[in-house]
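Note to self: keep these together.
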Amino acid sequence: MHIARSLKRLISLVVVLTFLPLSSYTQSATTTPGLTPEQVALCDPHKSCDHGLCDATICNQTLRDYSQMMGQLLLTTLRTGPGNHKDAPPANFDESKANPYPDLPDPLLLDNGARVTTASMWWQQRRPQIVEFFDREVYGRVPARLPKVTWEVIDTRRETQGKFAVIAKQIVGHVDNSSYPLIAVEIQLSLITPANAAGRVPIVLKFSSSTPRPASAARTVRVAGAPLWAQEILEKGWGYAILSTPSIQPENGAGLRSGGIIGLVNKGQFRRPDDWGALRAWAWGASRAMDYFESDRSVDAKQVGIEGHSRDGKAALVTMAYDRRFAIAYVSSSGTGGAKLFRRNFGEPLEDLASEREYHWMAGNFLKYAGPLTAKDLPVDAHELIAMCAPRPVFIGGGSTIGPNSDAGADPPGSFMAAVAAGPVYKLLGKKDLGVTALPPIGTPLVDGDIGFRQHTGGHTDEPNWPTFLTFASRYIHGPPPPGPVAP
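Structure:
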């Protein structure tokens, strides 16, 4: 994720990455020559496979799309984040230097300076202002007209997961691509519910960034077991679902034109600066999954939670903020772009998200804040994204910032600060805030309010906080009595 340096080196290697003028927006996507292995390495020298940039064609198309957006914004260079390139400045892990912009936007102050004092003022005036800022500057606008999604259950079978009998469904959301047949979008969703449930059950929808298998393969796949978090959910008599994010929108910049719902809606053309990015697209996919849950007689659609870890944690919080049908959220190690304050300089900074490797998550306008502007200039911050979820409960988790596989990059303390700053909105709406303002010792659960938080002793994983989240969620989510385990 090397912004200025990588572009200069690519130019020196005679790669054609010319900035296209704004008038070229309507130009159709074209395939450019493949890159050499050396040029692919420049695309992302140490994390390219993580975000699907190992393939030379994908790398080339990503860089072309990125440079085209830079051209629309009249930008030539951006600040290089520590996760972007081996030659970039190191990440900051010194808490004394972590808050260069300590003043946060006030979520209860209207743009005209008037104080928000009632719930109606929040819903009718302030919240729409915050949504507009996030739409325009951070995550992008969802198009007004989107294709229809038709859900098909392609496989249903009774299975045993751990000690529980379950009904496992493989479901595909067929997105109407009649307006642009060159791009097909098939949303992959799995749903697991207790086999002997006495009625509709609550479920937790979990984002997964794993590459989806073809829909045809789902018919012959048998789930042999379940991870620990899934067994903990089944123990409560609830169900769970897994939604594949790459089946909604690919995890690279090339997919903004060549695949996914964004490429389909834009008919293979370049985005405008305020068009939606992948995080907003994944949230749209979760909303379409909610459409399906409302039609499934085994699911209590009024009690559906959303969960995600790392970049999926970002998507989970965005989903919760925008779709008020979701009842609760578990946001794990979401870092910048999720629950962590943009104004924090600890671990993953804003500049990382504006790089070639991650810009596709965001609106094009977001790149400005890693160039002529800074995080201080953002009209909103993460605490206001959390506030958009109010009054519904949100649990924010993270790991230790020291030791092997540290979670320091995701900056759990920065997410805690955002959770604290979101508290006044929850209180305005008659709910409880986090209850404390000082970061508690690692391992301390804060679950008495309607914003929950816990920093576990492990690294970058969501597994240790699942029991705490389920304890928190049990205050709000109630299903039929859980069926007993399968006899050994």
